[in-house]
Amino acid sequence: MANYTDQECIICNKKFTDGDDIVVCPECGTPYHRECYSQEGKCVNTVLHEKKKSWSDQKAEEPIKCSLCNAENPPGSFICERCGSSLLKGMEEPQGQSDNKSTGQNGGFSGFTGFSFDPNDRYCGLDPHEKITDDVNVEEAADFIGTNVPYYLMLFKRMRDTGKNMTVNAVCILFPQFYFAHRKMMIEALAVIILSSILSIPSMLYAFSAVDAPLRFISNDVMETNAFLFITRISNYLSLAINLLTCLFANRLYMGRMNRKIGQIKAHESDLANVKNSITLAGGTSTIYLLVALAAQFIASAIITFTFLKI
Questions:
Q1: The CATH number of 1-61 is which of 3.10.450, 3.40.50, 3.30.40, 3.30.365?
Q2: Which range among 44-58, 85-99, 228-242, 251-265 shows the weakest confidence by mean pLDDT?
Q3: How many angstroms separate the CA atoms of 153 and 139, rounded?
Q4: pTM for the full model?
């Protein structure tokens, strides 16, 4: 028995309740209060009849509102385009379809707007051979991503469908270098460490002078000049800009690295089994790389300290 609770009758615009007497159009499936339908004597959802679509199709095409930021997202969205939060909560099968379709074969949920979701399905209901980018299919992307596959698959799919390169990566607001290292993007990680370390020098020198620590190459009096304070302020702004830019473009950089790596592997490997293994090894995450980045950050700070501070 179909469930229309909390859906609206398009004649009186009132939501259906459990005790309502409901009838549906035999052609398009649009639900009505029996009294409303009797007053009109016909289905008034003429748009669906003209397009030869069903009421269920119409519900599936409605935008999905994020429960956190209230942004409306296109049908089929898995994560919010504005804040990056999951849209899975509440994305149940459009009411009007059979209740026996509400669960998948493996106990997961099917009927989510635009795709099926089964926690045991690493492809999130997508066709493994579907292109997630121009040169990479869903299966290859899942093998490369390794961990947090559902998030990145749907993120990359949305980026491809919308053409947007800017998305929010919350980790990169504070620690972009460690995000890059964890995802085996060491060039990006080292670049951020070097830039952030250089830009931190004025602030570190000012902190040393505040506790009257003896300095090399520069006197404590210089710290109080307007020129040095201006340099410190600009350095802080630039450091903030780096974090902001990595926050907005880190996911795009990660997708670009995935494309390059998989493209290189497929160009040099002919055996499908070797291709799959090589993609898996090239992607994923790495605790070792993360520890290397932590060590590099510590060493950079130590070099600055021992360079300018007399010990």
A1: 3.30.40
A2: 85-99
A3: 10
A4: 0.62
